[in-house]
Each structure stands twice: as structure tokens, then as C-alpha cells.
Write a structure and sequence with these properties.
Strand order of the largest sheet: 5-4-3-6-9
Distance between the termini: 77 Å
Keywords: Coiled coil, Cytoplasm, Protein biosynthesis, RNA-binding, tRNA-binding
Protein name: tRNA-binding domain-containing protein
Strand content: 15-25%
Helix content: 25-40%
InterPro entries: NA-bd_OB-fold (IPR012340), tRNA-bd_dom (IPR002547), Tyrosine-tRNA_ligase_regulator (IPR051270)
Subcellular location: Cytoplasm
CATH topology of the largest domain: OB fold (Dihydrolipoamide Acetyltransferase, E2P)
GO molecular function: tRNA binding
Largest sheet: 5 strands, antiparallel
Number of helices: 5
Number of domains: 2
Radius of gyration: 43 Å
Length: 304
């Protein structure tokens, strides 16, 4: 394409020279025969250049898949033979090219290609920008909506091999495999008080190593300095059932929370005078109407 433009520029310069020569006629003596010979020679040269430009333009258009609609040799329109494999974009019909118009036609073709490319890029950029999903608004509340609380079933319990105060439990919370949880309950509960029991588990607490074993959740308990009891849901609950709290949207908890955040939320969690778990006085309830969560005997005490 650059070669075509360069040749077109040279042709334009030659035409300007001829125009200048014609303008000087009458101001100086010039043999008419010589002038005619010069014009004929220049005309032959221009025709050859125009034909070269036309040939190059046709070659480029054929490479782009543009069907020629004009026979430049016989100077007659061609019958339309557009292939079914042609692109859906309408084909621009090439107009008969004169010796003066050929450079302009080549330049117009190049300009059209550049504009098509620019339009496609702009359209793609606009679609990508429009389809990009909006970022969800982060939950900054310091309340129960940040907690992923679920019903769990303790499927096995054993003492921690390197910590006298810790149990290591395997707890089913409705996932592919049980989670490993370390709980400091040895001084308060026997293994039989925990094994095969339903409980409530905080599932999105950041995992932490406890004497070499990574704890992946926390068992929620009603707690006093002298006594601790696990919070238990009704017997018809299943591992993985979610805990809800009226007035709070608990459907989208954080993927993970740090202990520093949980320590800010836990002080608002207590049992009421019936031993039922609450957040700021509002009852915890198992999803799908499966009832409240209770401590066996501990009332009006913190939940930890």
C-alpha cells in the first residue's frame, strides 16, 4: 500500500509539471511538434503508471476477498459472481478508474480499511466495558452477617497428642469431607459429650495451627469460667444447614474472617433466659424453619 501511495504522489507531481508547462505556452517559443511529442510520451508513461496502480489495487482487493465488478482491460462491467463464502459485509463496487483518479481510488481504499479497523476496535472496546460486571459492595458491618454459621455433626473426637487441654474433632459441615477442628474443651466435656453430636460451627474463621494441627473452624459454645456447653440445634437438622437471624441477611457471609473481627462480633452473642442463642437479643434460627439453637442449661451467658 505504501508503494501505491508513493507512485500516486509521483504521478501527481508529473501532472503538476505538465500543467505548469501548459501555462507557459504563449510566453515563450515552443515548437508545436516537439510539444506534441512530449505530451504523447508523457501520456504513454502516465497510462503505464495508472495501469500498474490499477493492477496493484485489484491484487490487494482480491486478497481481501473483494469481487471485481469492472473489467479494467475491456473497460466493461463484469457480471456479479459473488461466492457464497464471501463475508456478510457488503462489497464495495470498484468504479472505472481514469488516469487521474487511480491514485485517489487507491488512497480511498486504504482509508476505508483503516476506518473499518478503527470501528471494530472501538466496538470491541465498548462491548467489553459494558459487559464487565460491577464489583459487589463489600460488607463492612460488624455483625452476624459476616459469620458463616452452620450445623455440624462431630463424627470423631480424640485428644490432641501435644496439648492436654485440646480435643481434635472431625466435623461434617455438609462438605465433601469433614473439617479438622481443635477445641479447648477437655476440662469441661468428656469425649462422649461430643462424639456424634450435632453442634454449631463457625466455618469461615481463618485456619490456625494449634500445636502442630491446623484447626479449620470453631465449635460455638455457651460459656462461663466454670462451665461450657456446646450449642445444639434440633434433632431434625442436617450437617450444612445454615443459621439465620431475623433482621440480618446471613446469606452472603465473608469467604474468610480473621480472629480480630470475630472478637468484635462475639460479645453481642449470648444465650437468653431460655438458653437460646441470640445476637443482640435476636434468636438464631436454623434455615427452613428447623427451630432455635440452645444450650442445655446455661442461660444469659456469653457465646464463644
Amino acid at each position: 500500500m505504501e508503494a501505491i501511495q508513493e507512485k500516486a504522489k509521483l504521478a501527481d507531481e508529473r501532472i503538476q509539471q505538465l500543467k505548469s508547462l501548459i501555462g507557459t505556452i504563449g510566453t515563450r517559443q515552443l515548437d508545436p511538434e516537439i510539444y506534441i511529442n512530449v505530451l504523447q510520451e508523457e501520456n504513454t508513461r502516465l497510462k503505464a503508471r495508472v495501469q500498474n496502480l490499477v493492477d496493484e489495487m485489484v491484487t490487494l482487493e482480491n486478497q481481501r476477498g473483494v469481487t471485481q465488478q469492472y473489467d479494467f482491460v475491456n473497460k466493461t462491467p463484469k457480471a456479479s459472481t459473488q461466492s457464497t463464502a464471501q463475508p456478510e459485509k457488503p462489497v464495495e463496487v470498484a468504479q472505472p478508474v481514469t488516469k487521474a483518479a487511480a491514485p485517489a481510488a487507491a488512497a480511498a481504499a486504504a482509508s476505508s480499511d483503516q476506518q473499518d479497523t478503527k470501528d471494530k476496535k472501538e466496538k470491541k472496546k465498548k462491548v467489553t466495558k459494558e459487559e464487565k460486571p460491577a464489583k459487589p459492595v463489600a460488607n463492612t458491618a460488624i455483625d452476624i452477617t459476616r459469620f458463616d454459621l452452620r450445623v455440624g455433626k462431630i463424627v470423631s473426637v480424640e485428644k490432641h497428642p501435644d496439648a492436654d487441654s485440646l480435643y481434635v474433632e472431625q466435623i461434617d459441615v455438609g462438605e465433601e469431607k469433614p473439617r479438622t477442628v481443635c477445641s479447648g474443651l477437655v476440662k469441661h466435656l468428656q469425649i462422649n459429650d461430643l462424639n456424634q453430636k450435632l453442634c454449631i460451627v463457625l466455618c469461615n474463621l481463618k485456619p490456625a495451627k494449634m500445636r502442630g494441627i491446623t484447626s479449620e473452624a470453631m465449635v460455638m459454645c455457651a460459656s462461663t469460667p466454670d462451665k461450657v456447653e456446646i450449642l445444639e440445634p434440633s434433632s431434625d437438622c442436617k450437617p450444612g444447614d445454615r443459621i439465620e437471624c431475623e433482621g440480618y441477611n446471613c446469606s452472603s457471609p465473608d469467604a474468610q474472617i480473621k480472629k480480630e473481627l470475630s472478637d468484635q462480633i462475639l460479645p453481642d452473642m449470648t444465650t437468653n433466659d431460655k438458653g437460646e442463642a441470640t445476637f443482640k437479643g435476636v434468636l438464631w434460627k436454623v434455615a427452613n424453619g428447623k427451630g432455635a439453637v440452645k444450650s442445655k442449661t446455661l442461660v444469659n451467658v456469653p457465646i464463644k
